[in-house]
Amino acid sequence: MIGAGVFAVWNPAAEAAGAWLLAGLAVAAVVAYANASSTGQLAARYPESGGAYRYGRERLGAWPGFLAGWGFVVGKTASCAAMAMTAADYLVPTEWERPVAVLAVVVLAGVNLLGITRTARAATLIVIAVLAVLALVLAAGATHLLQAGIGPQQAEGAPEVGWYGVLQSAGLLFFAFAGYARIATLGEEVREPARTIPRAIAIALGIVVVIYAAVAFVLLLVLGPGYLAASVDAPLADLVVVSGWAWAAPVVQVGAAVAALGALLALIAGIGRTALAMARDRELPAALATVHPRAHVPWVAEVAVAAAVVVLVLVADLRGAIGFSSFGVLVYYLIANLSAVTQPREERRVPRWLSILGAIGCVVLVATLPIEAVVGGLVVFAVGALVRLIVLAVRRRRNAGSARPAGEPDGAE
Q1: For the structural domain made of 5-397, what CATH number should be given?
Q2: What is the DSSP string of 355-404?
Q3: Which end of the chain, N or C, is more open, meaning fewer C-beta atoms within 10 Å of its C-beta?
Q4: How far apart are CA 251 and CA 53, in angstroms?
Q5: Is the pLDDT of residue 67 over 80?
Q6: Nearest 5°: phi and psi at 208?
Q7: What are the sequence ranges of the domains in the chain?
């Protein structure tokens, strides 16, 4: 979760919410908490690869499971491209951004192919470095506030917003929280998953909420909502410069790049596991279910994901990826919450009303995302559903008049 979002999401969120940015962050955190609670509860019952794809399929049926998996794979593949381009944007001049982004995807996909243990070790080193950079940013902002107080820029250029802007900012900020889903996708590769995964999700989310709230608070007090809404490229680097710590700006830029690379590393691993689970059920091509005999990773799926990300890096727009990714992931969590609602009392770890709240929150935040993100998301989901209908029709025609082979998924039933 502590990835490129904490460096990149504040500008579009401030454009939507203005001085009410913290309110948007609070809404996003509440929805994330409800979603995380449902995800942890489901992960304890279904400690398998696939996350909400598996939960939706087991609790709600094949179609909801497919839509959850499709939303995660497509939305997070777009997010991978955004992470790679964000890292390159901070590190190199414009003309070198796409080649460097492609190189980052290839290298990190290679790290993931070595096995989940190496992925976790690399992610640990990355998050330590990023936390050090965020501590530097907070120290610069706090020092400036102690010495100079709150500046006059607070009232300058602040967007005038209402409740809709707050909710839209929450939908965009949700992009920065959504990483806890990838913990649940690794259910087959951790010790004591029924105990470990719910604890990991709760601890991670708690830490991240505190960090994001501190960063948002300092950004608003030092830069002001108007400046923050106009700071398109590097709001945290702008903060240290305004605070009089210009020497730290390159450090922040490198930290942002490292954070983006860390998010990209985890994203590739999570998408690969969801694709693995879908391929096992013949919802995606069966070859994607191939697991390497020594590294125990779904190497075909991860190579396919990396190839798709490279294509998106070469053709995609960076800023639109945040809204599109939020759309896909909110649909994913909507299905996770609905799945948790159906669990019997003996499997429940959180009250049913919390899962219902999470489902309602997902619907509200999806509805308030920028219109281009909503339209793009609906089109992609429609394409996925159409392809699945065609595949099911072909499969039924092929099997007409014969018994269903053992182990074949039930499709739309």
Answers
A1: 1.20.1740.10
A2: HHHHHHHHHHHHHTS-HHHHHHHHHHHHHHHHHHHHHHHHHHHHTTTSPP
A3: C
A4: 39
A5: yes
A6: -70, -40
A7: 5-397
